[in-house]
Specification:
Layout lengths: L5 H12 L8 H8 L1 H21 L2 H21 L4 H11 L4 H13 L1
């Protein structure tokens, strides 16, 4: 049996917090606030990650990326998805040229 990673453990915690009291859980509050608020939070964390990179502070980039990934896990949970869904997609793409992979997606989108 594979040892759960931090992404899997966080995903499980987020799943448990879905039903928690919004007054005592940030995750519950964000999930209960709706899709648009989750998207706004991801946009905010994305911008903060970009600015940290622009500033050139490696540890700040790490901290902001952690925030971004955490909020992406919340978005996945909102959609009933898990990190495993994303990891499987990355595995599917492994060894495939990014240009080839994108072209294949675009063909599929048109059909």
């Amino acid at each position: 049996m594979m040892q759960p990673t931090i992404l899997h453990r966080l995903s499980e915690i987020i799943e448990m917090r879905k039903q928690a009291d919004a007054g005592s859980s940030y995750v519950a509050k964000l999930l209960q606030s709706g899709h648009d608020n989750i998207l706004k939070k991801i946009a905010e964390e994305s911008a903060e990650t970009l600015m940290a990179s622009k500033d050139g502070d490696a540890q700040h980039v790490v901290r902001e990326t952690a925030d971004l990934w955490f909020h992406c896990l919340i978005l996945l949970a909102y959609h009933g998805l898990t990190p495993e869904d994303v990891l499987k997609e990355l595995e599917r793409r492994e060894g495939v040229s990014g240009i080839t992979e994108k072209a294949a997606r675009n063909v599929g989108d048109k059909g």
